[in-house]
Amino acid sequence: MRVAGLIRAVALIFTLVAMWVFYRSYVSFGRKTIRLPRWLGMSSKETRLPKTKCGLSKSCLDNFFAFKISSGAANVVGPSMCFENEIIMSPVRNNVGRGLNIAVVNGSTGHLLRKGSFDMYSGDPERLMSFLAEIPDGTLVLVASYDDPGTKMNDKIRTLFTNLGSSYAKQLGFRDSWVFVGAKDLKYKSPFEQFLKNNPQTNKYEGWPELLELEGCVPRKIF
Ligand SMILES: *[C@@H]1O[C@H](CO)[C@@H](O)[C@H](O)[C@H]1NC(C)=O
Prior knowledge:
The structure is a single chain. By secondary structure, the protein is of the alpha+beta class. The protein folds into two domains: about 1-50; about 55-220, no CATH class. It has helices at about 1-50, 125-135, 155-165; strands at about 65-70, 80-85, 85-90, 100-105, 110-120, 140-145, 175-185, 195, 215-220. A five-stranded antiparallel beta sheet has the order 5-4-6-7-8, with helices on one face. The chain has a four-stranded antiparallel beta sheet with strand order 3-2-1-9, with no helix packed on it. A hairpin with a 2-residue loop joins β2 and β3 (about 85-90). The longest helix has about 45 residues, at about 1-50. The structure holds 2-acetamido-2-deoxy-beta-D-glucopyranose. 2-acetamido-2-deoxy-beta-D-glucopyranose binds near residues 108, 113 and 136.
């Protein structure tokens, strides 16, 4: 009986010590696993902080403006536009709409002069025509599509965009994706343009092509 009691006591002490050791190592292991993601989280937050304007992979030279434009995703997520590190249009700013989203900036100072959203499915295309016709000289024009930029598109609007340096405005149609940076009276085709035709065979989303992103450095106009 005494031996059995002694064995029980030893077993109990052993169990307590084992639990304590396990608890210690579990807790320190737990701390490590908590510390690791926190550290990773901080480092990824640090790398996410845009060191360059608009978070571009490379900074722009002095006589260039940084920009990043994203078209809308299907009819779900609105487009966004960053120019010189300022989000000028985005769903968060609640200043985008379906159709075409357009911002006009002064080509030498980079200041935002005007912006607008134009419903190209059920809106009045005359609104867009006068907006484009009244774009002042010496300006840059940023464009992002959302959902449907094409239904109310007409030849007059296509010509106005073509005069800003667009290559794809001529064929812009129902639910195409389009992002573009042009300039008033540009004498050549803008290199800053992306276009994706709505095609049920290749669409990323059922009724819409993939969203498009465009970023880069656009030269400042020096007068
Ligand atoms: C752009 O800014 C320059 C310098 O301030 C100014 O002279 C010019 O009139 C501006 N252009 C437009 C279209 O606002």
